[in-house]
Design brief:
three-stranded mixed beta sheet, 50% helix
Amino acid sequence: MLSNNSSNQIDLVDGQQRFTTLWLICDFLSSIEPILKSFTYTANNEPRIYFSIRDKAQLFLKDKSSFNEFINENGQILKGVENEVSEIIPLVEGQQLIKEILTEFQKDKDFNIALFSKFIFNKINLTYTFIPGKSDMNRVFEAMNNRGKQLEHHELLKSRMLKKIDSNERLAYSLIWDACSNMNVYIEKSIKDIANLSWKNLYGDVSIVYEDDTISDSKIELENIDIIKLLKENQADEKEEMSLKSILDNQEKIASDTINKNLNESDYLSKSVRSIINFPTFLLHVLRVYQLKKNYDVNNAAEVIEKKLLTAFDISSNFDSSDNVKDFIILLWKSRIYFDKYVIKWVNSSEEKEEFHEIEGIQISKSIIKNKDGSTNDTISVQRVEVSDENIKCLVKLQGMLYHSQEMTTQYWITPFLYYLVHEKLTNKEILRKLEILDSVLFYSTKNINKLKERTFSVINQNLLEELNYMVKTNEYLSQFMGTGYPNYIFYKLEYILWKNREDICRIYNLDLDKWNKFRLTAKNSVEHIFPQNQKLENKHIEYISLEELERLVLEGKHPIDDFGNLVLLSPGMNSEYSNMPYKQKKGKYDSKTEIDSLKSDLIFKNTDWDWKLAVKHRNEMIDLIENYLEKLKTN
């Protein structure tokens, strides 16, 4: 960052260390590539870098030989003279380090220092920004260096990708990238603000639209607009400049238009939202969808690891043309629209204590306001609202189950789900069923057991209905007395199936449907035994199973306390809360709560008492429920 000073010199406000290091490297290499001398020195042989308050440092740059008496044959400052030449120590050490590194490089027969010098001269670009000359340089420098934020990998990726696109087209694609990068704002709001668009630009000249089931039967599809054409037209409009006379002549009209624009275009309402994944992770999922579209081999599928973002994209191999980059950014745009439309977000509401998962639809309306002079203004308002469609409500619970039971940072299931959203025109019901099948094929199969990276990629080329024939045998699996060895996934999967069938279950077992409707999946990772593993001494008289039956099962290597019917998944806090209490005490504590710990818990605690026979009965009922659910996936 630069500023012109009164001496007709340029002050380097930010970037001093980088520039000095570059100067020292070029100074060393100028003996090999003389053209670099034009960068390091002026025609009068004055250093192009100037330290205004460090005379000795400046003298060293101009004439290094004048300090020979202070430097030994190894290029190091002599002991005892450090205080006298303290200004030049960083320069001497830097110069010596550069010499050592480049000397080491030359030991490699493939390293050509002359070509390296030419590379530096021809390839290094200096980007500079001039700030007003009267600015407070100290405040600017402090602000620049207190940002605490360096360029992120996705910003570097954007720069490298956009270089492939012609400069006259680049801005439109850059705006799309920037709009997609803000994952914590809905895409329609993000693109509108970043590209300075209007709702009319995005949604057309509609009369009145109310999308109660926006997601399944949307009358206005953002993904159907030609976003590149729209952005280019908007850029052209913004470039039209009015003459000073026309501005003065039309002040009233301009003021009126500004008021009307604020009136007509300011209406947007959305709760505070947070994406379940960050932008680099989203980019990697979109890259995987792009690779699927281009028929990449599964062995070359990108891995969802944020720190490997630049390596995964491998721009020189995968995005060597403008068309490929454009294709990817358009895919990024469409994927982001579908992501906001069909993938859960963390939602903050003033009416709720904690954030929760939700999929919100778009509601758009247009009204006509009459002005005093008889003219009219159209007001377009856009808001995100709760969706009443039962399929979407189930989709929220299903994705909540996947979110909490899978790797938090990768969420590999998003890749195939996004692929289907982008490439198939599906109804809400079909989308829900597609994800239900994907979930079971990916995570409840005896066949798909390779790494998630490959499994969630190759599944696109599989016959999903056929793959449902390779499901885990639930009866055998849940009859293994595995206790805490059961993975969290099976508990979460059961919670989803219970919630989906909540009306029938609440009617059959006489449970509170209103509580089940309000139930939300939260982070749980602690398996709790309903009948405690370790009874307190005063509770030893309470029998879970007869001694005779227990001995028989133990001989078979089975421990009935670890029966799936006697287990629930809770948060660590809930688990410690119940501890080793006897069943009736746990039931009393549970019944006093206003919210449900888990749906499985609610089914268990409807019982007055608890023993192994009831645990087996409950387990078998849950097995039947899961098997019926899987069977319906094959036939629906």
